[in-house]
Amino acid sequence: MLQGRESQIRIILNKADSLEFHELMRVYGALFWNLSPLINVTEPPRVYIGSFRCVPFLGKTMYHDLFLSEEISLLHGLYDVAVNAVEMKLAHVRQHAIRVLMHAQLVSEYISAFDRARSILTDNDAVWTDIITQPER
User: Fold this and answer.
1) Facing residues of 11 across strands?
2) 44-64 residues labelled b (16+ CB within 10 A) or e (exposed)
3) How many other C-beta atoms are found inside a 10 Å radius of the C-beta of residue 72?
4) What is the rounded distance in angstroms from the CA atom of residue 10 to the CA atom of residue 12?
5) Which one of 21, 102, 118, 129 is at 20 to 30 Å from 84 when CA atoms are compared?
């Protein structure tokens, strides 16, 4: 389920302030070891380390500045995801509109060809069949 969506993956190691540095690195390594078979990319996804909750950091951690910068980076990353999603939807709508326009032009050409080819003496079903089966004419 993750394949093809690697650019959309955000990994968060929450409550990192409750772990010692060596425990945090062990968890970080185990995470990548377990995810590596699932995500086939050369560059692993970004991992945000911090304490993403509404309470102050536990104790006097020396990683306070790191956790704050990671939180700001995560918020900027989520904002970029939202902006990119809107841009992708606009591009999809634009592509769909171009296809609708091309379809309308084709239908208009078919109708014009039908109007030129029909007469009182011709079979309209045969004219339609001829236009549809041989559009290059």
Assistant:
1) 47
2) eeeebbbbbeeeebeeebebe
3) 11
4) 7
5) 102
Mean per-residue pLDDT of the chain: 83
Whole-number Å distance between alpha carbons of 50 and 67: 5
Instruction: Give the total residue count for the chain.
Output: 137
Token pair listed for 33: 């070891």
CB atoms within 10 A of CB 10: 12
The gap between the terminal CA atoms of the chain, to the nearest Å, is: 48
- Rounded Cα–Cα distance for residues 46 and 15 (Å): 17
Phi, then psi, of 136 in degrees rounded to 5 = -70, -20
Distance CA 85, CA 19 (A): 35
Express each pLDDT in 10-35 by its tens digit. Answer: 888 888 877 788 888 898 888 878 87
